[in-house]
Amino acid sequence: MKKMKIIYEDQNLLVIDKEPHQLTIATQKHEQNTLYNEASTYVKKQYPKNKIFIVHRLDKDTSGLIVFAKNQDIKNYLQNNWSQVKREYICIVEGQMPKKKDILKSYLAESKTFQVYSTKDKTKGKLAITEYEVLQTNKKYSLLKIKIKTGRKNQIRVQLADINHPILGDKKYNSSSLKKDRLYLHANLLEFKIKDKSYHFISEYPKTFLSIFKDLK
Fold first, then answer.
1. Which end of the chain, N or C, is less surrounded by CB atoms within 10 Å?
2. Is residue 64, in this structure, part of any structural domain at all?
3. What is the pTM (predicted TM-score) of this model?
């Protein structure tokens, strides 16, 4: 396991650039290799009574920026104002997109086997809105910038698979690519305000993205 990559830290916040293949928080009792556990151990080494609080999550296989609060007040403030937080992702999908820009809307529900899917039944699903913009393309793949207007589980992955452009390496949602090293989805921008102070964080493109689009900056 790689050492936790800290992007920013102060008395209220801990911002981490999460590696793929790591859970944000345990979903079962036996799961110990979580970012939450790692962050908690880190702050307790500074002072044993320190605590860390979950503000939001990333999927296990998604990499990128995630913010933890160091006290309950900051956690509550961020969660209560989460709709105002600017979040952007980058991803590589299979094929060339039909439009340069588009907004994807659907209602998402979850099966008994924890598979998220789109449904037309508004009583079963929750509205998910995802905006994409094509940044680059080649013969096989497209690099997209993603903005999410809602925070549904797996929404980016499901909605892109729905239009037959699954995220590269996403076996759960129909990627046919031979790429198996990771899911090519990365949370690369976080921007928010706490009272009068503004925070802006950017994470660099992962090296695996650079291997497919070599002229990224």
1. C
2. yes
3. 0.92
